[in-house]
Design goal:
mainly alpha; Methane Monooxygenase Hydroxylase, Chain G, domain 1; 3 helices; about 75% helix; elongated
Amino acid sequence: MIMNEHLHEHAVIPRTDEEKDKVMNRLKRIEGQIRGIQKMVEEDRYCVDILVQISAVQSALKNVGYSVTERHMKHCVTDAINKGEGETSIEELMAVLKQFSK
C-alpha cells in the first residue's frame, strides 16, 4: 500500500469532530467485521459464509470511501476551484477515483 503523507499541495480543510467521529465509527465497525472474518476462518466456517462477510466489508469500505470523496468534493475541491486551482484538484481527484474503482 502506498502511503504518502500529502499527495497534494492544497491546504487541507480540517474535518469537524462530528465528521471525524462518523468516519471513525464506521472504520471501527469494519475493523470488528474483519476480526469476525478472522474468527470464522479460525473456526473453519463454511467458505460461502466467509465470502458473504468479505463482500459486506468491501461494501462498507467502499461506502466510507464515497463519504470521504463527497466531503473532499464539497470542501477541498470547491475551495480549490474558488482559488483558481480547480484543474489541479480535479485531476488529482480523478486519479484517485480511477485507483479507487479498480
